[in-house]
Amino acid sequence: MIDVTIKRILSFVVLVLVQILLLNNIKFLGFITPYLYIYFILSLPSSVSKEMTLVWGFLLGLTIDIFCGSLGCNALATTLIAYIKPYFQSFFGPKDDYDEVKPSTATFGFEMYLQYIAFLTIIHHLVFFFIEAFTLSQFWSVLFRAICCTIFTILVILSLQYFKHRRR
Amino acid sequence: MRTLILFLLKFRTLFLFLGLELLSFLLIVNNNQFQRNRFLSSSNRIVGTVYNLSDKVNRYFNLNEVNESLAQENEALNTELAQLREQLAFYRQDTSYMGRKQTSVEKNYSFMTAKVIYFSTVRQKNTFTINKGEADGVKRGMGVISPKGVVGIVSNTSGHFSSVMPIVSTASGGISATVKGKTQLGKLTWKGSNLRYAQLEEVPLYIPVVLGDTIVTSGYSDVFPEGYPIGTIDKFSKRNDDFYDIQVELAVDFDKLSYVDVIEFKNFEEREALVEKTEK
Hints:
The complex is a heterodimer. Chain A is 72% helix and 0% strand. Chain A is mostly helical. Chain B is 40% helix and 28% strand. Chain B has helices at 2-10, 12-31, 33-93, 97-107, 268-279; strands spanning 109-120, 127-130, 143-145, 150-157, 162-166, 175-179, 186-189, 197-204, 214-217, 229-238, 243-250, 259-265.
């Protein structure tokens, strides 16, 4: 139990560091940045309670916010996907498995896993970008940015999955 | 209480979620200047829109009162404006107003300012109308002057208007006039051509006249004050062995006449009555 928690905190720290030190500096085509840090929430196993998922989500978003100087934006978006993540997990995940399920291409199947991360990622990104813009006057440009970043984030998550499974 | 706790426990995830989202939102609004400004300005806009709407509705309810008060105000302002305009025109024309006031006290007559509301100058028998009548004390036979010089004589009166026979009218019988500083009388008539000039007749040859001499009213009139200017000598010639034929350039420009004074002698009626009685 303690082992699991330490591991989780470690992955939390690593993801935050990767996000703020590496990924935030990527500005592909000038505006496309992958927000890989939500991978932490997406990968939380089903054994983690909904409340804990929420707390993790809020803390994760807040940590990223503190480093990005956009206090509240990431926290709000990440808390939202932390709230809906368990429902998405039970919808897309394996129905007949009563054991702890950690979302991945292996447990979900590629197609289901892709849909699972795609929905949560686009929700997170849309909320994040619109909160950041705080206006609907540039609706299409914000939407375009959100979709581009979503695609990029999904690609990064999938490649991460791919390398993990090849290593095994 | 138990139910409340159960309820809270049942929806603890939702409440936690909402609490965390609210916290995030407060963080956003409190820490990010841009979002804060937008949030405050949009909430201000909503408040402002609501106030604006209620104000619009209220305005419709007040419309009658507002109209009434505006109409009253308009009326008062218009009255004041007319009065001030009249006074302004009067003082602007009449730089010798105070002097004349003084004279009028000594001479037992007073002036009544009136506005020319209609002036026909196209006909030979010229006449004009002023906006003072019997109600204001104007009577037939009273003299009318402008600050520059003699204008004419009231020929007809009604309640609030009077007709004036100007000296530039062939219907006018002529007024007695004299060269300033002399006592010999002449008769000023208008021959019906130019509004700027009139003829002075019956001035005897033995009086020396010079071009530019001022022609004034004689003191024997009970219509005009003594020595009031009429015009200046424009040119003169001998008519026959006894009299001059003098062309007088009138002091008053009848084309630009707008305000006149009706001369009110204090004992006008008494004088008229006496003259009538004597002539009988």
